[in-house]
Amino acid sequence: MSFSLDVRLSKPNKTYRQGELVSGTISVNTPSDCKHDGIGLSLEGTISLQLDNKNILLDTFSSSLKPVQIALASFEMVKPGRFPAGTTEIPFEVKLQPLNGKVLYETYHGVYITIQYMIKVEMKRSVLNRDLLKGIEFVVEVPESYDGSNDKPKVFNITPESLRNVAETGRLPKFCIKGQLDSTAFVITKPMTGELTVERCDITIKSIELQLCRVETCGAGEGFAKEATEIQNIQIGEGDVCRNFPIPIHMVFPRLFTCPTLTTNSFKIGFELNLIVIFEDDHLVMETFDIQLVRPK
Question: Which residues are the signal sequence here (predicted)?
Fold first, then answer.
């Protein structure tokens, strides 16, 4: 049995809100009596912004996009001494609260923006032995007031004439796809719902897909860089679907990779839904909908 350091959280879902106690256990496992120079624990919350290396604005922003700390609390859990052979467990609890002048945001893992909260434990050891470091991520939820003002169905009617960025609509096959999203503001813990109907299409349909995208905007006073990237893609219709038959729209928002729509002075996190119809010749048409994600109190 080798020397090991571990940390566990009390909540199985590892989800907390501001003001709650983040509690758990530090576990030290050693095959024999051992000396240490103390154990420290810290709670850290950081926002990391990163631009694509191909972005021409990267050099301008580089000095402004350093990780921002929004939560930090450090404690000495065990003073220098010795651990007996076997397993020693040390309970801990830390109140989740922001630094003065800062605000907690929801946990989010994007491509260019990451909001992350960690419990880190470090055991100091002698010069001849490396210090041991162990960390565990936990999830922060931030409910907000929502008046339901955007909770209205979004009706759509996709035809060759309704498409944007098409030079010659006369070369497109004739089609008409109607439907609705049940809202443009969705509660993040509930699925996105709606339906669509292919009323007419003069060419064989190969697939109908829903693509959820994150739209991340980050920068500083010098300007902003905006990028849209895919989160997930699901197929709701395969092959030449029946005409005039309602097809349900149902998508669950993935944890960690989505969060309530967020706007701050230095970054923004938004979301889009792309409805994609792929024809048998692999040409496709796409309709984009801006959607809002909310977590009501």
Answer: none
SS3 19: coil
| 92 strand-pairing partners | 24
154-294 to CATH, choices 2.60.40.640, 3.40.50.2000, 2.40.10.240, 3.30.870.10: 2.60.40.640
The model carries a pTM of 0.88
Query: What's the distance, Cα to Cα, between the start and end of the chain in Å?
Result: 48
- pLDDT digits over 95-143, tens only? 999 999 999 999 999 999 999 999 999 999 887 778 889 999 999 999 9
Chain position carrying tokens 């009501």? 296
Structural tokens at position 271: 């979301």
Distances (CA, A) of 206 to 158, 234, 237, 239, 281: 17, 14, 8, 4, 8
H/E segment holding residue 61? helix 58-61
